[in-house]
Amino acid sequence: MGSMQRTTKTTKQTAAGCYAERQAEAQDLLMRIAARLADHQRRQAAEPADWGYAGDLGRVTEQLAYVLADLGDRSAVDQKGLEY
Known about the structure:
Layout: H1 15-46, H2 52-70, H3 75-80
């Protein structure tokens, strides 16, 4: 039985290439978040007395405030009184 030689193709990733991939991923996530927020709003409109939807958005807005702070804008975490 003969041995099969494996060849490995290596590509060197650059910082710019990595950034471009992650930028595209972030843009995709933002579009998906927007779609899920719209769906969440439709579901809340069908059950306007349900406080769970407001609770969901409380957690979401805190997390988004931290994301904004990670990108250099602390205004939302400061406004909410969150530790960062």
